[in-house]
Fold:
Amino acid sequence: MNNPYMPYPVRIDDIEVATEDRSLKTFTFTFLNPEDEAAFDHKAGQFAMLSIPGKGEIPIGIASSPTEKGFVKFTVFRTGVVTTALHNMAVGDIMGIRGPMGNWYPWETLKGKNLVIIGGGFAFTTLRASIVYMLDPANRDNFGNIDVVYGARSPGMLLYREELFEWEKRDDINMHITVDGCDDPSWAYNVGFVPTIVEQKAPKADEDTFAIVCGPPIMIKFTQPALQSLGYGDNQIIMSLENRMKCGIGMCGRCNIGKELVCKDGPVFTLEDLNKTPREY
Amino acid sequence: MKVIKIDKNKWTKGLDTARESYQLFGPVKIKENHCFAPLKRDQQPDMTVVDTVLSPKSTVFPQTEKLMTATLDTSKPNHHLMERADTDYSPRAVIGIRPFDARAIDLVKLNFDTKDHRDPYWCDAHDATTFVGLAVNTPSQFDFSTSMDSGPFDEKGLDVLLVDMDTGYLAKILTPKGEAFMACAGFNREATAGDLQKMEELKKAAEQAITTQVETDNLREKSLLDLHQAPFWDDVAFSCINCGTCTFVCPTCWCFDIQDETKGNNTTRFRNWDSCMSPLFTLHGSGHNPRGEKTQRVRQRFMHKLKYFLDKYDQGTMCVGCGRCVKSCPVNIDIREVCNVMNAYEPQK
Structure:
């Protein structure tokens, strides 16, 4: 019988410090067994369990796009037992990954639509996967306009900085990078909180435009009225949630929001879906 | 459906024969209390105890269970590679499980055996187990199983239903697994029409002896959000001390935690029963807690059992009416009362 608790063995191939305060690192893994890589067939928006024998497991959004082959990538904030252990690991170390888990951004619904992607802080990982996926030459024609509002506390806290600035140069994606505050006079982008920039820069809603929002609770809370003032309906606001998890396959019982399980029925919900739940997240 | 008659003086010998092919579990006294445990050689199940302190859910879902092991010794070629723990899934039989507890295992199966994933540990244990139930002739004052789609003679989830006829047992064989167990134990004398009639009378008397009536008929139509926002939850939770006893004694509470334990270079990934009564259950790494308040946790337990589960599976509530939580709660929180309040609730418009 297939054992959903059994992680695929992986090797750490690269570790990159992602932010200036060193609290985030990006890990690139390769699968020890090629057949496991084929089995790990994910869609942008899904997550996986990073599994360190002797320490435990953590659910983390998959930061690499399905179009990037040969590796999987995760950006991890150091906060507890497992993430601290992971931050102390070295290239070449062996650990495990279980997944992919959960649902994904509704790519079938989003076909042919305009998208505004809104991210804050270190919740930009599955959004990065989504942008890379959409910008892939094989997929770009499947989407209309793409706008991205991404903010962090300071320039050095932005994830994937090199990619962000490359996307800035392209004409098939409208980037609105922002920081909460900045004393660097050469900073050429926005200054202000994400909800404010959304109100100023995001496109007005029409029936062919959808918003994907991923960020800390406070950002989500204040982005919602900004989107509503631009005319976005609850079914056009797509959010990715997180709750404490253990199994990741809908069995251990703790990540529920009413009868929905974030690990299995989520992590992606529309605001319309969430309005039907007791919102315990 | 075949019904077999077993003389009580042949019961022990039959069980001893079955032991050669099955590992037996049954109710036994451990210190002061009765619990379900593996029977030692020569140990007999106590067929008189109606409700053990803990339910027999541990026979398929141990309180602590090894999932996987690995070596951390980097000189070994398989270091840091998890392997499934070596667990014995040879045939086993749970003797004397009460019908409400078997019904509970049947409900919990909906969680562990799904179209997307099968939990191999729970399912392998369940597949290996024959449930030899024992009808409740004299229900306890806490029993309200007839209100919860079960009952003292309920057959759901059982392979054999035994009925204590004083001098002997009648054994109603319900599945091929049950038939195989009875054949293995050497029980094969067919019951008479008179026996069957007597069994029906006992069933009727037992069902009538349960006088507690809990109302569930409106729960399905009630709005989940109305119930969640109802004003009575603070009152329900007021006296709760979040000890979690209700969740541990409950036959349908299945929530679990996964933890790694390491000794030297050997590490084991365990799963343990967990409880939604603990704030740690839902605590985020950031410190945020979606159910940080006691009332939210108490509400979660009742809403899960009596509304979320019902809405999700449409197979009744996730309560079988065994009455253990009512009996064990140190502050007398009573699911029967909470269920009636939920069932009767009309939101103020």
Observations:
- Chain B has a mean pLDDT of 95.
- The first strand of chain B starts at residue 3 and ends at 7.
- Chain B has two domains: 3-56+80-209, 224-344.
- Chain B has eleven helices and twelve strands.
